[in-house]
Amino acid sequence: MKRAARFIVFYAALFGVWVILAKLKIWPPYLFPTPWGVAEALYVGFQDHTYLIAIWVSMQRVLIGYAISVVLGMILGLGVASNKFLEETMGGLLVSLQSLPSICWWPLALLWFGLNQNAILFVVVMGSLLSVTLAMEDGRKQMPKIFGQAGRNLGAQGFKLFWYVLLPASLPFIVSGLKQGWAFAWRSLITAEMLYLSLGLGQVLMMGRDLNDMSAVIAVMLLIIALGYIIDGVVFKSMERHLQNKWGLAPAN
Amino acid sequence: MSANAHAVPGRYPVPSSPRMPARATKLGPVSLGESSAPAIAPVAKVGLSEICLSYKTQTGERLLALDHINLQVRAGEFLCIVGPSGCGKSTLLHLIAGLHSQTSGQVLIDGKPVDGPGTDRILIFQEHGLFPWLTVAENVEFGMKMKGVPKAERQEKMRHYLRLVHLAKFEKSYIHQLSGGMRQRVAIARALATEPDVLLMDEPFAALDAQTRDLLHDELERIWSETGRTIIFVTHNVREAVRLGDRVVLLTFRPGRVKNEFPVTLPRPRSLEDPEVAMAARDVLDELREEINRSLEAEYQEGTKPHIEPGVEA
Prior knowledge:
The complex is a heterodimer.
Chain A lengths: L1 H23 L10 H13 L2 H33 L1 H14 L8 H8 L3 H26 L2 H9 L4 H38 L4 H11 L3 H34 L6
Chain B lengths: L2 H4 L14 H5 L20 E11 L5 E12 L4 E5 L6 H9 L6 E6 L2 E2 L7 E4 L11 H12 L3 H14 L15 H14 L4 E5 L7 H18 L2 E6 L2 H7 L2 E5 L6 E6 L11 H28 L12
Parallel strand pairs in B: 3-8, 3-9, 6-7, 7-8
Antiparallel strand pairs in B: 1-2, 1-4, 4-5, 9-10
C-alpha cells in the first residue's frame, strides 16, 4: 500500500512538472509537446496502424536476432568454458569486443549483407551475442561440478549431457546474462532501424523527427520503453521466479 | 603387535572369498613391489591394481595422492574405506566411478579394465548431487532415461525404488523441499534405479544429524541385503564403517596407501551403539589415530592444506 502510494505520488509529480513546463511555454510546442499532444499522437499512430505494424516488424526482428544470439552464444560460451585453449585465446577477445557498441558493426553489415533485413539482424546479433556468450561461460564455471559428474555417472554424455544436465544446471546462473542480452538486442535493433528506413519502431521514431512532430517522437520513445520493460518484467521475471521455485532459491526481492 | 591381536573379535575367516587371504592379515602399508593382486584366479567384482594418482598442485609441485593401491572387492561385499581427511579416499571412489583417471594402475570390474564412467558403478555423493531442476521422480528416472528405457518401464521402476527408500509419496516434490536425510534416500533410489552392480558411496551420511544417520544405516543395510549389490562405502567415521561393513580398509595419510584391513564378522543387523561395534571400532581407531596425527602435523606445518578432493585439479 505504502509502496503504491509512493509510486503514484512520484509519477503524478513527474506528470505535473511536465504539464507546468508545457503550460509555461518556455519552448515552442513543437519542441516541447504537452502530455495530451503525446496522447493524441499515440491515438493517431495506433488508429492508422502505423504503430502496430512497426511493433510487429520490430518484435519479429528482435526475436529472430535474439534467438540466434542465444543459440550461438550458448554454444560459444560452453566451448570457451570447457576448452582451455579457447578460453585463453577467445576469452580475452570476447571481453574486449564487448567495449564495441554494436552499431559499429553497421557499416560492415551493410557491405556484407546490403541494405536489408539481414544487416539489421546482424547488428542485433552482434549486440546481444557477447552478453549471452559471457553469461554462458560464467554460468558453466559457476555451476557446481557435482551436477556434471552425477550426470556422467548416470550415463549422460555428449549432447545428452549438455541438454539434460549442463544447460538446466547453469540456467539460474545465466538468466541475468540472458536478460542483459535481451536489453542489448532491443537497443541495437532500435539504433539500426533508425539508420535504415524500413518500417520498425526506429524508423517511426525518425519519421517524427523528419516531420518535426515532437509529440510523435515522444510517443514512440514511450512505446520503446514500454515494450522493453514488458518483456523484461513479464518474460524474464517469470522465468526467474520459475527457477527460484524449482531450485528453492530465495526470491530476489 | 600382530594383526591378530588387533583384529575384530570373531574375525572373518574369508572362506569363499576370492581376495587374497594374506592381505587381510598383513599389518602396515602394503609393500610397493608386490603385484600379485591381479594374478588371483577367481575374478573379483571390483579390483584395484597398483593404483597411483599424482597431480600438480597450484604451486607446481607434484603431489602423490594415492600410492599403489591394491584391493579386491568380492561381489555382494560391503566394503568400507576409512582414513584421515586428505588420504584420497574420495578420490579413489571417483577413480572407480571413472570420473577421473589414475596416473597408473588399473580399475577392474569383473576383471575388465574401466574406461570412463559406466552405469554399472554409481557414485553417491556426500552432497547428494541430485538435480534441483527435476522432481524426485525425474531424478530417479534420469539414469534410465539416458539409457533409453521406455517411459512405462521407467515409471514402474522409479516407483519401486522410491518405495524401497520409503519416499513413494514424494514423487512430485522438488529436491529443495526435502530434508537432508530424504535427499540422501532419493540419491540412493536414483543410484539403484540404474541397477548398478556396484554402489560407490562417498561419505553419504556425513552431513546428516545422528538420528537420521542411524535410520539410514538401517535402511542401507536392509537395501543392501535385499538387492545384493556390492557397496564400497567411504567414511571418516570408524564406527560407521564397522557398523556397516563386511570389511574395513584403512588408508594412510597422504599419499594414500592401504595400511590395514579389518574383517568384521559381527552378526547383522548391527547398531552403532553395540558394545561389540565399539570394541571393533577401537581397534581400527588405534591405527587410524596415527594417521590423523600425521595429517594434523602436516596441516600445521603447511598452514594451508592442499586439497586432495577430486575435481579441484584441472
